[in-house]
Amino acid sequence: MDIKESNTGEEKRSLSFVEQLVEEDLAKGKNGGRIQTRFPPEPNGYLHIGHAKAICMDFGVAERYHGVCNLRFDDTNPSKENTEYVENILNDISWLGFKWGDIYYASDYFQKLWDFAVWLIRKGLAYVDEQTSEQIAAQKGTPTTPGTDSPYRNRPVEENLQLFEKMNTPEAVEGSMVLRAKLDMANDNMHFRDPVIYRIIQTPHHRTGTKWHCYPMYDFAHGQSDYFEGVTHSICTLEFVPHRPLYDKLVDFLKECDGTAARGIDDFRPRQIEFNRLNLTYTMMSKRKLHALVDERLVNGWDDPRMPTLCGMRRRGYSPESVKNFIKSIGYTKFDALNDMALLEAAVREDLNKRAVRVSAVLDPVRLVITNYPEGRSEDMEAVDNPEDENSGTHAITFSRNLWMERADFMEDAPKKFFRMSPGREVRLKNAYIVKCTGCTKDAEGNVVEIQAEYDPESRSGLPGADRKVKGTLHWVSTDHCVKAEVREYDRLFSVENPSADERDFHELLNPDSLRTDRNCFVESYAARKRPGEYLQFQRIGYFMADPDGTQEAPVFNKTVGLKDTWAKQNK
Ligand code: ATP
Ligand code: MG
């Protein structure tokens, strides 16, 4: 691929092949220099990170070339669509930070599309087929052998018109008839072998109610909608490459139908450009399977933090910037591939490092008593919210005699390089004092139930002379000044790298340990007051976000991602 630089200025970066094609069109003066794209979701589910890739391209091209990107809900199948999905899609696009021009619906064009279909019938270019879908499929032929004509292919125009009307009545039986375009049963491109363009559906539509009983197929709605709206570049994913000739052909017919072709006006036609879908390791994007996960309660809803949906990622604590940075980093190509989830997580870590407020939380607690610190006394220590952000403030964390520390930060017989708590060794308690471990207490089974240490009053963080060096710094919370919290840790949803390509039933591929809930964690009270949407780092552990299931008194946190990619190591 030859890489060119953008000529539009500010941000210098190499252009994707899609942008190169758009620039070629601009250079040729196509469409009077106008750029109009669209993002066309079908409102039959929630948006996932794959959609975000399409959104970044559709909106990105419009922004870059001072055009507009509209939304179009491709709502041509009422049996699967509803307004709940429409609303959530709008919400997710806003969360990503994009602003659309207008909102359109394919259902706005039902009358126009119907009229166009009637025009095709009159031209002898469409017919009603009364065969079953199995019979129609059996006659399609193969890419190397031509198909067989339907016995209804040469019906008179009048009969087709009558039957098409009949298809659009409440009495019409689903599957009893379809309207097919009469194109070429021997065409190398299977989509030209008399594609079905209308089918009967008796489920009421979420916008048009029971006005219609038969609905256009994707191929008979998408390109036409692009044309009606004035879309200049219809950017989509690679599976639509074989649809493109039909897309163009139907635009030709439309231009004949509306008279622009006869008047020699051929300067405007939307151009379809395809890029590779986003596929991520250890997850899948198929809406059908995501639906199944939700419906069978294998996850806790569309916004379960393990889901690849944007609402799931938001709940988990991913920032929109990290999602967009990840998409930028993988780029757009003309071949499908599998992208590593670890790359997404790296992008999340990098962005949250700049954003997250540092707090202390002890996830696997053991008691630590500072034996020379007076009973009943406490003092507020100053904690920097985010050392990576010079504009960030500070907050108070209360220190006292009785603390919680992480069980894994203590070892009785520690090797030399263990720079944590061990009898006779010194460590710094973050934002507080240097303490020297003096011993521990065990229960009858030999489990450590308490650790003792003595503090050095001269070593309070921030005091002159307090910069005495000790190797380890540990986090802690004060037992009387912390809040008990539930922490949810997530692992990969699927236990195989590419579940979409696996022949086994997807239920067998689910990771049984994808959610671990720990109800015995303690967080400093400042963290307990944080609400969903506020990015947090539990120091030395990872990034976390409050979950809407929690309250200030009983907070719940989702682990967004660990500080390091421990997962890669586990699987080596
Ligand atoms: P369905 O199975 O319902 O067709 P879909 O994932 O294609 O699901 P749409 O709502 O039709 O969903 O998709 C809207 C747009 O998002 C389309 O332009 C589609 O090409 C794009 N898109 C969908 N999935 C991905 C993906 N994994 N990567 C990139 N773009 C995607
Ligand atoms: Mg689709």
From TrEMBL:
Q: What is its EC number?
A: 6.1.1.18
Question: Reaction catalysed?
Answer: tRNA(Gln) + L-glutamine + ATP = L-glutaminyl-tRNA(Gln) + AMP + diphosphate
For the protein in the UniProt heading, the enzyme class is ligase
Q: Superkingdom, according to UniProt?
A: Bacteria
Q: Sorted alphabetically, which keywords does the UniProt record give?
A: Aminoacyl-tRNA synthetase, ATP-binding, Cytoplasm, Ligase, Nucleotide-binding, Protein biosynthesis
Domain spans labelled Glutamyl/glutaminyl-tRNA synthetase class Ib catalytic: 35-353
- Record GO terms (molecular function): ATP binding; glutamine-tRNA ligase activity
- Leader sequence range is none
Question: Where would one find coiled-coil regions in this protein?
Answer: none
Which PROSITE patterns does the protein's record reference? AA_TRNA_LIGASE_I
In the record, biological process GO terms are: glutaminyl-tRNA aminoacylation
A single GO cellular-component term from the record reads: cytosol
Spell out the Pfam families in the cross-references.
Answer: tRNA-synt_1c, tRNA-synt_1c_C, tRNA-synt_1c_C2
Q: Keyword Ligase: yes or no?
A: yes
- The UniProt transmembrane annotation reads none
Q: Does the keyword Nucleotide-binding apply?
A: yes
Domain Glutamyl/glutaminyl-tRNA synthetase class Ib anti-codon binding stretches: 356-456
Which residues does the UniProt record annotate as the domain tRNA synthetases class I (E and Q) anti-codon binding?
A: 473-547
Q: Which family does it belong to?
A: Belongs to the class-I aminoacyl-tRNA synthetase family.
PANTHER family in the cross-refs: GLUTAMATE--TRNA LIGASE, GLUTAMINE-TRNA LIGASE
Please identify the protein, giving its name as recorded. Answer: Glutamine--tRNA ligase
Tell me what organism the protein belongs to.
Answer: Prevotella dentalis (strain ATCC 49559 / DSM 3688 / JCM 13448 / NCTC 12043 / ES 2772)
Q: Which gene encodes it?
A: glnS
